[in-house]
Design goal:
The protein is mostly helical. The protein is 75% helix and 3% strand. The protein has helices spanning 8-27, 33-50, 55-73, 77-100, 119-140, 146-164, 169-191, 196-225, and strands spanning 102-103, 106-110. The protein has a two-stranded antiparallel sheet with strand order 1-2. Helix 7 packs antiparallel against helix 8. It starts with 7 loop residues before the first helix and ends in a 9-residue tail after the last helix.
Length: 234
């Protein structure tokens, strides 16, 4: 009997996420169909990313474009710039990296890596530099909720960079970003209840990213035990 690609747990997580997103969209009359489509694409990308499937990165690119447009409608210029000018382009780079490093020739599973110790200072310095630069850019644009918007840039940059490096820690960075976005859109929902649906969306994202980290660690152990130890990222 052929083994199913998605486990019962993954199907359950995706199904619950979809149901919650659709219900919140209907109940709180969200900003439009675009918001619903973006949310469904986003949550689907996460379950594929949790499997290490490059198709997940394709959906991340699409989600980033849609989310950037949605962010613009609420003057969250930090989110708009982050996703359109950073997350989307780096997702393209990450996609290329994942496609170039399939595990044992399996195009639907990326070979998981570890980050070199000497790379940590570089990652930290790059993250700080991007954070500082975006703080002044967002301030100049009179971005709503400047501090959390800047923190969102920090976590987003770290997440996409670790995604490119094929490190399991990318999911933790995205989980941190989800928490920041839950705060951001919760603030927005005080003045417009339609944005509650976006809050629910990122709550679902948080669940998926936590699972993604756990599953990547499991995949990493399986790949290592299979005689193909995870290589250090170049």
């Amino acid at each position: 009997m052929k083994k199913r690609y998605f486990t019962p747990t993954e199907i359950a997580i995706w199904s619950v996420s979809v149901v919650l997103i659709v219900l919140s969209y209907l109940l709180f009359k969200s900003g439009g169909l675009l918001s619903l489509i973006a949310s469904l694409i986003g949550v689907t990308s996460l379950i594929l990313n949790a499997k290490g499937n490059p198709l997940g990165q394709v959906l991340v690119i699409i989600f980033s474009l849609l989310y950037g447009i949605i962010s613009f409608t609420f003057a969250y210029y930090g989110e708009m710039i982050t996703y359109l000018c950073m997350t989307a382009p780096m997702a393209v780079i990450a996609l290329i990296s994942w496609l170039r490093h399939p595990y044992n020739g399996n195009r639907s599973e990326v070979e998981i890596c570890c980050v070199k110790r000497r790379e940590y200072p570089i990652i930290i310095l790059l993250t700080i530099a991007v954070t500082v630069a975006f703080y002044f850019i967002l301030a100049a644009l009179d971005t709503a909720n400047l501090l959390p918007s800047t923190i969102s840039v920090t976590t987003s940059f770290l997440a996409v960079l670790l995604t490119y490096k094929r490190s399991p820690a990318f999911a933790l960075a995205y989980a941190a970003n989800d928490i920041v976005l839950i705060v951001l859109w919760s603030i927005a929902s005080f003045s417009d209840t339609s944005y509650i649906s976006v809050v629910v969306c990122f709550l679902c994202f948080l669940l998926n990213d936590i699972y993604g980290y756990i599953n990547w660690r499991c995949i990493q152990r399986r790949q290592q035990s299979g005689g193909n130890a995870a290589k250090v990222a170049a």
